[in-house]
Write a structure and sequence with these properties.
- This protein is 36% helix and 19% strand.
- It has 27 helices and 34 strands.
- Strands 10, 11, 12, 13, 14, 15 and 18 form a 7-stranded mixed β-sheet that branches.
- The model has no long low-confidence stretch (mean pLDDT 93).
- The protein binds ligand ANZ and zinc ion.
- The site of ligand ANZ has 17 residues, from strand 11 and strand 15.
Amino acid sequence: MVDDSYNPHEIEPRWQALWADERAFSVPNPSPGEPEWDERSTYVLEMLPYPSGELHMGHVKNYTLGDVVAHFRRRNGWRVLRPMGYDAFGLPAENAAIKEGGQPREITERNIARIREQMQRMGWAIDWDREISTHTPEYYRWTQLLFLKLLECGLAYRKESLQNWCPNDQTVLANEQVVDGCCERCGAEVEKRSLEQWFFRITDYAEALLDEMELLEHWPERVLTMQRNWIGRSEGAELVFRVEGTEIDLPVFTTRPDTLFGATFFVLAPEHPLVTELVAGRPEEEAVRAYVKQAQTRSTIEREEKAKEGVFTGRNVINPVNGKRIQIWVADYVLMEYGTGAIMAVPAHDERDHAFALSHGLPIVQVIAPQQGEVDVQSEAYVSSSIDDVLINSSEFSRLPSPEGKRSIINWLSAVGLGEKKVSYRLRDWLISRQRYWGCPIPVVYCEHCGVVPVPEEELPVLLPEVSDFLPKGRSPLATAEGWLQAKCPSCGGEARRETDTLDTFVDSSWYFIRYCDPQNTAEPWNREIVDHWMPVDQYIGGIEHAILHLMYARFFTKALNDLGMVGFREPFARLFTQGMIHHLGAKMSKSKGNVVMPNPYVERYGADAVRLNILFMGPADQDAEWQDNGIEGTSRFLGRLWRTVLDAAEKPARKPKAPTSLIRKAHQTIAKVTDDIDRRFAFNTPIAAVMELVNEINRGPDDPGVRFAAETAVSLIQPYAPHIAEELWQRLGHERLWCEPWPAYDESLLEQETFELVVQVNGKVRDRLLASAEASKEELVELARSSPRVIALLEGRELRKTIVVPRKLVNLVV
Ligand code: ANZ
Ligand code: ZN
């Protein structure tokens, strides 16, 4: 007797080889006018990996999710673009080269080769003809071209400014890469240095980045909120205070113009350009200079901790609204990067101003009062600003409600030409230059006569030279590439030096999704018609850790490219899904904790299908989950059970019974459930449970005449998750190429009795529609409604007050 037990190690490589031979998942670009051009097409994308080592279980989750969506859509009649590539530049490869020797390029390419092998071994349905890597000249040539386009229209510029400097990595960091005052990568405390750097003018797009969030209907609310906070829009006023006895006007930004009468002192950031001038030749000069110097060497953390420190300049400004003189101080709780770098301090109504006033004996004057009750602003700031508050001690503005006070004071300021309404953003311009080797060279030269001159497009790419010393010494290692450094000025033909800084790797990943659409184009970065055909990405999948940086930058790039007429859309990712993280041993996986779980040992033991199935069976995909070895034991056993069940059923006659049997009904219900879960609810664990249930049902009734149909259904539905075993069993059932088969359809009439669409409301507003069993009790319906991710999000932190259930129709949750 032949051994016919389930053996993934025999099945999986066989199918993988076949898919590779047939380029089963390659989707060539149709030309406009060809029939394929008009077919339904969709773009499914997962964030590309960073090849710093091998793939771990977090990647496995990400790419398996994408795989299920891609298979599902393809079998539902879509042409599916599903590419893959590598975000290959960046510090880890360079640091590895410093530590272990060798070139970052070799290290990176070795890692890529391993990752590609892992991906193939997982059986992911990738269009390998579109593979790209950001470190290849074929790719970065176009990154350089895009940089030049942004330079040409003024969106890229160079400027000297105070920068975040990581003393350990010896490079500048974007604001976004500083977390709690420390370097996001290495954790070293970040310092400030004045340096000349390249920027992208993302602040020009602050308003658009906010407003066009309206186009992002299918993004998680959490991500939108994070982006909104990062952009940080504040409405208020800008007004000027004149320095007493001079013609110098100092503008301030305030969100509380209604508190203008309560401004009892004035504060400049230590880096404010007028500080030196104001104290020149005065008795306070020495103390102020010493303070400024000290403030500069302090990290952001220290500055925030010591918020109460500061020095008096000996000068005063005049409050424009009442002519009162108030002292000018220098204190580092005022940041040069926000607003105007100067504030009017209102200690009665701002906490930090209050603390500062107390420690320096400055006056506190209340100008806002609650409609009822008393507050004591001498002991604590009263920071509220509601419609119920009124202005006091504010001359003719007294007794106005606070919002009206704001408007009236702004109007008065505008009338006398001393201020106006103003919107401020927290968002800073994006710092894109890095003094490191392993990145895309910035394509400009410096000429003594002509200044900064862009390298002509025909001369791209400016190739990254090979150097031998990557050790950071405060300037880019590219400065050591002697021969490469010398260039001819494209403008006057004289001697010029190349730019030695490289681009932040986030620039590389801000447009890769466009290049995938037309990856082999050697004449231009992409053909717009083709890109507009595929883009925007219909479903983007990735980690929540990219909620701010990558997604913000990619959105900015897309808008800029749209304004340049290079693409026909405003947003790159129509729908976003952020997956939860895989934890192990109770903690988030990290190299330093030594708890990273790699797929390889599990694939070797249980096969890729079991690993794929298990990673999605662990719980709702948007939630964090703990990797457990006994979980995969379980899923692997299920695959064995599926194998035997289907082989047994394959012995049964293929003829379908005339009347629907209970197994046939169950099969149709399972199709309906799995389809609805994947398609609309984006739930990936529950379909697995549904197929498991179907398999159990088959085993309970092996003599039901519908057994063969039920078995085929189980195989067909599990295919996106476990494609190898599914193909093998499909063949044993006498068919071929399940991956090209249409997704099974269900017969409504077989569900009618059994299921209905449950409308789920929260406070009377429809929030979800779920497939529910007609037999479900009221309690079960409420349970079901409360399990909807949308409802969970809405109920979070709120108390459920009442539930209304209309049988076979709706559940309304009142909070
Ligand atoms: C007077 C005032 C009175 C303020 C009051 C607040 C409360 P958001 O909301 O974050 O935009 N501010 C302005 N520029 C600053 C800077 N460069 N560094 C530190 N603080 C700065 O904050 C705006 C408020 O933060 C502004 O409104 C200003 O203080 C302060 F009862 O002006 B306010
Ligand atoms: Zn020149």
